Each structure stands twice: as structure tokens, then as C-alpha cells.
Amino acid sequence: MEENKKKQTVEMTAEELEAFTAFKAKKAKDEAAEKRKQARATYCNLVDETIAESIPVLLSLSEGIKETKSAIMDNFRAVIDMKAEVMKLAKDDQRSHTFTNSEGNKRITVGVYVTDGYRDTVEDGIAIVKEYIESLASDAKTKSLVSMVMRLLARDAKGTLKASRVVQLRKVAEESGDERFMEGVQIIEEAYLPAVSKQYIRGEMKDTNGMWKTIPLGMTEA
């Protein structure tokens, strides 16, 4: 025979009930805060473990890419040497080389990225060009020329004069026939000091529609 459980009733004053209710709310709040703290600790541990597992994989991939790039560059060095000999080309003058197979459905481009740079004397050349060109601003025609030349002398976000613009500047100087203008441009050209930054390799294949598709070699493209 089951015995009936007796319920005990505790009588509280209003003040005691308020205090008890506050105690229960605080306890519940503390328990919830502790659970969140434990969840954050679990999350941090998971992040640490995942990073520890992933970094070696990425290092291995990076080393593999480095070795593959070096091997391909070495392979094409002989091809580039033969190309220079057969085509009577100066190897140092060409910054990129594209090779296509006989079927015309695969090709590889190897080259180097080059950043524009100049010796300090470039400032002298720019000063000469500006001095000459600003002296011409007398009518609408010459003001237009001044504006165009000043745009060609504008520097990029890194403060560097673009070599491609200097080529255009030379054409303008040659058309003007002015020796002082030409001298300034020549000083700028002589100050040109390009720097090779990185080697690159690009592989491409034609798809079923005959369109060239780049082989994804980076983490973003793959």
C-alpha cells in the first residue's frame, strides 16, 4: 500500500517571499551564466583543436605548391632558352611567355610581375616637363595639352609614376618637337628602375565549348 506523500506548507511573510523569489532568480541567472561560460570554453577549445589540425595541412599544401612551382619553372627555363635561340629574341626583354600545345587546347603562361620604380633623378625630369608644359598655358588648345600631360604625370595610389604613361608622354614630347620637353622625358626614362616582385604560372585548358578555362591554383579559385 502506497503511502501518500505529505506536502509541507511553509508560511512566509511578504518580505520573506520577496527575498526567496530574488534568491531563486539570482540562482537561475548564475546557473545560466555558468552554462554560457562553459559553452564559450568548449567553443574556444574546438577552435584551438581545429586550428592545430588544419595548420599542418596548409603548411604541407604550401610546400607542395612551392615545389611544384619551382619544378615547372625549371622545366620551362630550357624551353625559354630554346625559344630565345630559335626566335633570335633577347630573353631579358620578355617578362612573360605563353606556350600552347599543338592541338591548341592547352596552354601555360610563365612570367614575372614587375612593379614600376624610379631613381631620385625622376623628380628632376618631372620638374623640367612641368616647367616647360606650364609655360604653354596661354590659350584653350595649349591648356588642353597641359591638362593631358599633367594627367600622364599623375602618380598612382602608391605614389609611383606609371611606366605606361611615360611611354605616352614620350609620344607627346616627340610630336611637340621641343628639345627641353624631350630632355625632361628622357631623364624620366633613364631614371626608370623596375623591380621584379613575383614569378607566376597560369595553366589553361579549353572546355567542351572551346572556351579557355584557367586551372584553379589558389585556395580562393579552387
What does this structure look like?
The protein has 222 residues and is α+β, with helices and mostly antiparallel strands. Among the domains are: 14-88; 122-190, no CATH class. Helices cover 57% and strands 14% of the residues. It has helices at 14-87, 122-134, 140-152, 163-176, 179-190, and strands spanning 96-100, 106-115, 195-206, 212-214. Strands 1-2-3-4 form a 4-stranded antiparallel sheet, covered by helices on one side. The chain is elongated and about 115 Å long.
Q: Determine the mean pLDDT.
A: 87
* Spatial shape: elongated
Task: Give the helices and strands as they follow along the chain.
Answer: HEEHHHHEE
Taking the sheet with the most strands, its summary is: 4 strands, antiparallel
In which range does the helix fraction lie? 55-70%
Task: Please give the count of helices.
Answer: 5
Q: Pick out the low-confidence regions.
A: none
The end-to-end span amounts to: 74 Å
